[in-house]
Amino acid sequence: MAKVHVTTTINGEPMEFLCEPGDTMLDALRGTLNLTGSKEGCASGDCGACSITLDDRLICSCLMLAVESQDHEIRTIEGMAQGEKLHPLQQKFLEMAALQCGICTSGMLVASDALLRKNPKPSEEEVRFWLAGNLCRCTGYDKIVRAVMETAAEMRAQ
């Protein structure tokens, strides 16, 4: 089967790549584009480790075909940092030890960023609801939720 040519925008940069018609966006990101921050945890959309945004909509990249990214805007964990400077969420996750093994971290950060873009003043309940699609076996979620809440407060104060 012939490869498909895809033109899209990833992390603000125009991108072109070739992929098999059945390749997932996660396959393209990790294998073709060497953007390895998104992790494969389940390959069934149940864990959130591969979370990205597609036109500002939070999705699991393991459930999206790469060809569907044609003419869309994708943001991955690699797009969160501003040059060498960490995104405020990344900094707060480090400061508050809101991570352990790292498998879920990129998905948690992308999901948290997507939430704060939509709602800069979420309640704890809203943060917990928003992150419900991201599974973590190590941290117990409390540090993650507190890190998101503190980041939101600090970003509003700026």
TrEMBL record:
One of its GO terms (molecular function) is carbon-monoxide oxygenase activity. Keywords: 2Fe-2S, Iron, Iron-sulfur, Metal-binding, Oxidoreductase. Its EC number is 1.2.5.3. PROSITE patterns: 2FE2S_FER_1 (PS00197), 2FE2S_FER_2 (PS51085). Residues 4-80 form the 2Fe-2S ferredoxin-type domain. Signal peptide: none annotated. Pfam families: Fer2, Fer2_2. SUPFAM superfamilies: 2Fe-2S ferredoxin-like, CO dehydrogenase ISP C-domain like. PANTHER family: OXIDOREDUCTASE WITH IRON-SULFUR SUBUNIT. This is Carbon-monoxide dehydrogenase small subunit. It comes from Bradyrhizobium algeriense.
